[in-house]
Amino acid sequence: MGMHGSSTRQVILDNVKVPVQNVLGEVGKGHKIAFNVLNVGRFKLGALCVGQQKYALSEGARYANERKQFNVPIGSFGAIREKLADVTALTFASEAVVYRLAGLIDDRLATLDQGIANYYVDYQKGIEEYAAECALVKVFCTESAARAIDEMLQVHGGYGYIAEYPIEQLYRDERVQRIYEGTNEINRLLIPGLFMRKGLHKTVLDPALESTAAGPFGAEKQLLAGMKRIYLELSGHTIRMFGAEAAGEQEILLTLADGAIQIFALESALLRAEKACATEMGNKPELYRAIIGICTFKSKQQFVHAAEKCAVFLGDDTLLQSIKALTVYNAKGLLAAKRLIADATSRAEKYIF
Known about the structure:
Elements: H1 30-66, E1 68-69, E2 72-73, H2 78-109, H3 119-128, H4 131-156, H5 166-174, H6 184-198, H7 207-210, H8 218-242, H9 250-277, H10 284-314, H11 317-326, H12 334-348
Antiparallel strand pairs: 1-2
Helix pairs in contact: 1-2, 1-4, 1-5, 1-12, 2-4, 2-9, 2-10, 2-12, 4-5, 4-6, 4-9, 6-9, 8-9, 8-10, 8-11, 9-10, 10-11, 10-12
């Protein structure tokens, strides 16, 4: 279907003898290396998806300026402009989670002493500490790329369906990304368990951001704090109800994963925008505020959907009331924010951040 340039092939090893000098790691512990390769692969796939989204966005914006209907570019129509704004927001959030995870892993590996004998063992363990975040980035970025590419193909209309335009190849190549490196369903099932074991409040939930619900993103921080409280209530309720059997409640785990994904994505976008606004000049801070408004509105919608579904599965009406009370967010100015981002993207004909 896609990935026609891939050299992927089936290789069958039947009673193959490996010389001692060619053994990688320790005999019987190869699975640890294999699993860690998956962790890194998931992270790198997320980064690849960011590039795909940028390429798709630039192709869509350029085509929208070229294609005319009723003697005006289709990029002047609100239906098209909203797509440009939404895809820009998806790309911003995807880029934010990739940068954040890269920083977390780099900081962890920088603490290692490269001169010790077991350096690579400790290196492997350092990456394993972020297995949940790698799975999370893989799911969020592959699904964001799917949405972005699909929307930009839609901008192309029928031309997007023929091989003459690059968006057609992007559409074909993208589909497998939600399957390899572990299907998105498998990755979702991994996320809640990994976070429960190491303590979500010590990893995904950034205490520095949570304690400063003020400034230009005060409302977004308050929403994020509410999302975190809800997530912890839902995950705690799940453990109390099912105990060690929670791993078998896949439908519930999938909703918890979706909640964690939205928390991590929104927090990453906020951290990035807040840092950028402190140094950027001109109209860039206004663009950052606009993109955060779009990201927040979307994250809230998806988080509430996942949280309410989880609460219904758990059969707890009190949790449903908490969700409504803790996710209040005034999205006033959303339309203006989308139009601002769409205008900037249309003029640049590329990703603007």
